[in-house]
Amino acid sequence: VAVAIAIVVSATTAIALIIVVAVAVIALPLTLLVDCCFVVFIISLPIEIINAVRHHHERFNGCGYPSQLAGTDIPLYARIAGIVDCYDALTSPRYYATPIPHSEAILKLAGWRARLFQKELVDTFIQAIGLYPPGSLVELTNGEVAVVSDYRTGMGRKPKLTIILDVNKQRLEHKKVLQLSGKEGTIDIAKTLPPDAYNLDPEALF
C-alpha cells in the first residue's frame, strides 16, 4: 500500500510540474519565445559559421572589430565573408551611401589586398565573380543600356546581354538579347553603370 501511495504521489507531482511548465510557456511573451528559439538555433550552428558571423568585420591588418584580429588569426570563413560583405555594401543601395558600379568595387577590393583583406582570397573572389557578373548594368558603345544575363569564366569582355533601354534611354517593349563578339568595329561595352542607373532595378529584370 505504501508503495502504491508513493507511486501515485510521484505521478501526481510529475503531472503538476508538467502543468506548471506548460502554463509558464504559454504565459511567456511571444518575443521571448522567439528569442529563445533563436538562441537554440544559433547554438546548433557549426562553430565555423558562428565565427564567420562574429568576425566578418575583422580586417587583415588588425584594424577591424570586434576583437581586432589580424592575418590568419581571423577564421577563414570570416575572411571570406568579409570580402563578400564589403562587395555587397559597395554595390547595393544603402541609406548612408550610393551604390557604385561593379568595376569600381572590384578596383577598390584590389586596392585593399594584403591590407584589409587577404590577397589570395581577394584574387580568387575577383576571378570567380568576373568582370561582368549577371545583373550588372552596362552602357554600350551605341548608347543602348543592357543588363548582363550570363557571364562565365572565359567570356572575358564578351558576356551575354539583354538590352532594356534604347539609345534614347527609353524602355524597350521587347527585350533584345545580344552576345558580344569582341570583334573590332562591333558593338561593345562602353562602361559599367551603377545598379540604380536610370531608375532601373536589375534584379527585377529577369
Task: Characterize the structure shown.
The protein is an alpha+beta fold. Helix content is 42%, strand content 15%. The chain is built from six helices and five strands, in the order ααααααβββββ. It has a five-stranded antiparallel β-sheet with strand order 4-3-2-1-5, with no helix packed on it. Helix 3 crosses helix 4 and helix 4 crosses helix 5. The protein is elongated and about 55 Å long.
In short:
This protein is an alpha+beta fold and 206 residues long. The protein is built from 6 helices and 5 strands; from the N terminus they run ααααααβββββ.
Output the structural class. Answer: alpha+beta
The rounded distance between the terminal residues' Cα atoms is 77 Å
Assembly category: single chain
Major β-sheet annotation: 5 strands, antiparallel
Order of helices and strands: HHHHHHEEEEE
CA-based shape:
elongated
Rounded radius of gyration (Å) = 27 Å
- Poorly predicted runs of 5 or more residues: 1-9
Question: Which features characterize this protein?
Answer:
alpha+beta; disordered N terminus; 5 strands; single chain; 5-stranded antiparallel sheet; elongated
